[in-house]
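The instructor's notes for this session suggest beginning with a concrete chain rather than abstract definitions. Hand out the sequence below and ask the class to guess, before any prediction is shown, which regions might be ordered.
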Amino acid sequence: MSTLYDCSDPESRQAGLNRAASTVRGGGLVVLPTDTVYGIGADAFDPEAVRALLSAKGRGPDMPVPVLVGSWQTVDGLVMSVPRQARALIEAFWPGGLSLVLPQAPSLSWDLGETRGTVNLRMPLHPVALDLLREVGPMAVSSANTTGNPPAATAQQAREQLGESVSVYLDGGPTGEPVASTIVDLTGDQPRVLREGAVSRAELAEELGVEPVSGD
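After discussion, reveal the predicted structure:
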């Protein structure tokens, strides 16, 4: 049976984080608040847990799951290298609403879907999410909704869609107007904006020193 923890109450928050951490380590699913929308998360290095996440959403591996991290330093162990442009964007916008697509480290034994050797990384600006990520390490996290439905802006909205497929719901209050993260692909010769969201093109251009191009 799933349990919802009110993270505005310190005792409930700590109990929820403890339960969420043990659930993630045991291959289960949790819902957590982020600075954009609520997310459904699993251990990024547990392929069965990631498949369960996709199944809960009603989604296939053709739409790979992004990875959330709890610190800048975590990125170094997940990618082949961190180019200068990535460092500049991380320093400017992390934690926050910017996702970076980079070539993943070939030694990693994870299965996030059809990633073509890349990984989509973000560090969220939310204390509950950061506390959990720093406890359990990188998590595969997708928006907490079933395919075809709007992303959840509250833990209760997530629970209405995902139900008992998720063991733990961490309620960090409403996220406000749901705004997706901006996704920038840094795997090619020039930065490409795959999705514009919380960080504008103008802000990206200011940090990069070049206007990013559009691309899928």
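Then share the key points. The two ends are 39 Å apart (CA to CA). The first strand starts at residue 3 and ends at 6.
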